Records
---
Amino acid sequence: MIKLDDIDFSYEEKTIFKKLSLTLEKGKFYTLLGKNGSGKSTLLKLILGIEKPKNGEIYIDNINLRANLSECQKQIGMVFQNPDEQIVTDIIEEEIAFSMENYGLESKAMLKKIDELLLEIGFEGRNDEKVSKLSGGEKQRLCIASALALDPKILILDEATSMLDPHNRKIILTLLKKLKEKGMTIVLITHHLKEIEYCDEVLLLKNGEIDFKGPKELFNRLLTKGLVDIGLDLPVAFKVARDIYLRTEMDLSEDVFNLNKMGENLWKSL
């Protein structure tokens, strides 16, 4: 669904990517990790066509980004960190309709799509409510609905859960998992390691390179080395799992998100 082929990119004299290649498959949920300055935002700008690589090619759903920018951009829905900076109207229905109106969709099709998206995000029947009355988590769900209004095949979320409390973060992640199960390709940029529970693949950007991919590889590295070198804090469950591993070499990578099993394993290790 997204393919980067030997990408070179620099800001003046500073090299960000050198021969970077990456393939993201259709219908998978990816989490992109990396500390500030690792290249996450630059990678996002390249995929969106905001920045152009010095060398190499980018493909979105097998379409060359350089050759057909507008068609590629239609395939991608974007959700950003702060919903208040993305929302442009004050009525829920009007917010979802905004992008469809810009593309000239007929009224009947728009209304049908709005109702479908409201049902998707759990807002059924709330068409005429004011956006200003929504909580932060609800606003972010509305932003997701707006991003899906033109039926993109890819949904990219740039730190979209960072301003939410754990309850609303879980609602958003559950929604993303449902979208993935319906065939949507999801790319979640985050600093919250616990969110990898919901994804299929983990991508870690370090010094402009993909350091590793896959939840299992991440867990194994957490247990043996931690992630201090890339500036990411470990959730409590990860710290407990690592402590148990260092004392007993018991591999808890499969149980790290299951607090009950973690408690059982902790008791066994004492």
Note: Residues 166-181 form the longest helix (16 residues).
---
Amino acid sequence: MSALPVIAVTSGEPAGVGPELCLRLAAHLTYPWSPAQCVVLADKELLTARARQLGASIKLRDWRSEAVPALGTLDVLHLPTDAESVPGQLDPSNSRYVLSLLDRALTGCVSGEFAAMVTAPVHKGVINDAGVPFSGHTEYLAEKTQTARVVMMLAGHELKVALATTHLPLRDVPAAITRESLEQTLRILHAEMRRKYGIEAPRILVAGLNPHAGEGGYLGGEEITVIAPVLEKLRAEGMRLIGPLPADTMFTPPLLAKGDCLLAMYHDQGLTALKYAAFGKGINVTLGLPIIRTSVDHGTALELAGSGRADPGSLFTAVDQAIQMAYRERQ
């Protein structure tokens, strides 16, 4: 266990900012004293062209597991694109290439070749345009690992916000929140806060679904019929759960001080506040998978692709957090 953990970084949509953000990793880790080895999964020729376009002096090296990390050098596991990629111009022809990056990283994580995977952004729309149903990394990796339930959590600016539902139309959210699903989500969140963050008895703030957490049933009954009974059951087992709380005040300092993480009932309820506080520095963590997976908290930023102006902060944080989690799992 003395060898450095290997973190696989998928470069994402080739027309987006992912490839150029990955190039910046060559200078991020403090070689030769790096705590881990990073390997970028990408088309090597694409990275070469993007580096040339940006005027970046980076040595690209074919990845070998026994290679020693070197300053200014990026280790690359070459996977060729299906079509030439132009920054800012989506091409459905490369959608299966994007998924092949995920598949290769996942295979390496499951086999133990990689200690964790970090994902640069993909474009859901163009993948679906290619005829491949795709709702996001979280759902894709859950299906590929045959994981019955995973939890999406974003972390940044000392906030950790998990979601009871993810990429659903708002009209479908209430029916998706059942006692069974909520209990499973809370169990995963509780276990992963212990496993990935080392918090022995995590304090979890739980939002209500409706305005003012239902106002005692006058603004909706899900808090009474679904959320509260689940919280009572799990509290009886020793979990430290606070709620259901009105979502409009859950992110105020007095309440945040009482919790280690938060559970929101739907996507925008939780992530609007987090992205306001930490956009560009936050990360996405998939909880419940048999592997470690972190990701950036932003999209492909097609308008910035090829400009060199994209902020690598979120990718750097995602890599750093993946390394910490990998070492924690070794303990």
Note: The two ends are 10 Å apart (CA to CA).
